[in-house]
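Sanity check

After download, print the first record. It should look like this:
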Amino acid sequence: MVAWRCLLRRISDAPACWRQPPASWTTARSVSSDRPGSAPDLQPGGAKPNRRRRPAAKPGTKGHLYVALEDHKENGFAIHKLDIDDGVHSGFTDEPPPLPPPVVHLPLLTHVDTKPTRFAALGSSIVALGMRRTRNSTSLGGVTVVYDTDTAMLTESHLLPTGMFYGHDVAVATGNRLYLLESYSTPFEYSLGKYHGGLHCLKTTADPKDERENDKWCRWRWQAFPESSRFYWSSKTFPPALPFHPKSITAHVIHPRGRTILVSSSPLGTFSYGTESGRWRRRGNWMLPFKGSACYDRDLDAWAGLYLNPHDIDAHRNKTAAGDDVHLCASRVTSARRGQPPEWKKVSIHDLSVFHSNDAHWSDLDVKIQLLYMRERHEYCLVEYLDNHVLRLTVFRLSYGDDGELVVASVQPARSYEMPTYYKECFDDTDFGSQAFWM
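Expected structure tokens:
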């Protein structure tokens, strides 16, 4: 009996490499790979893949869409709160209604000496990092502004790491920490072949595991906001160095367990960062198939995000023009330890985009798009910033079809809002400046 239990334990603990890989997914190889998967993802016997049960939504909670827009009239930024279930819809031929009044104005300068304001999300808070005048108005200083969407509390601090003055290239939130990668610091290890740039961290509340972070190079030293004890910035003269240049990042994801961040950098490949070990490791010369960030979809048991057209990497494009076909991509979760390239498949969402319109007034516009995952609703929102000062939102679901293919189903008609002419869409040149958030 004991031997039988041992055998069962060995089988249950078998590594993932023992499992037979499905033939339906396309392997994410190099950045030039453009092969979508087409065959169904079926388990032995033809059964559909197992899907995890949806967690019950918290009673009384309702998410909203928050959009941060640059306000040249007020020389700052305005955050608007949108209810996507208010029943207001506008088609291509309708005159879009104006945006609702902003819930808060942020006192940050819009653009100072190539020092742009960047936004990120941490829990229920929107974090803005930028520059503003000092109290005597004679010089500029860095500032961190945190807006809590649950309490409407606004926390402002003049504490900002020096390397963050020119903005960050990537922001990744996991747990109570926000990791930010920037490309302006000169790390101490630069002479050893490292790249310019550094890794910084913003966290909420004290964390007991901070005392166990004793790595010589990656240990965090924390400095609390003088104005609030809720937030802490990592404080080091030389931030932890990066094994790649942040400007070359094409995609990033978080492992579902929340302890590993995967980053693809062209042309070096994909790297992983362990939030507990504080170390970077190169996983191979393959690339994640996403454009920017991708999220973990529990229903699909896969990462999902906008598909990266390999031609856009060299062209550094962050706009979508008429005639472009926009795709979503779903990638199987790969083990950070094994370092194997994930398998993926894609599906067109052209019919959901503004380019589906037959009206030349809409279809000839340049558009900047962002994809949001509304986790508790298990739905997605396609945010389109049109260069005629219109904000367009489309809500849809992503699922597997009977043959295992990706299927996109619209949930409600698209809606549009008219933005004031003194507003400017807040996407930066790197296309990582997420300015819309679901909370």
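If your output differs, re-run the checksum step. Summary of this record's structure: The first helix runs from residue 2 to 12.
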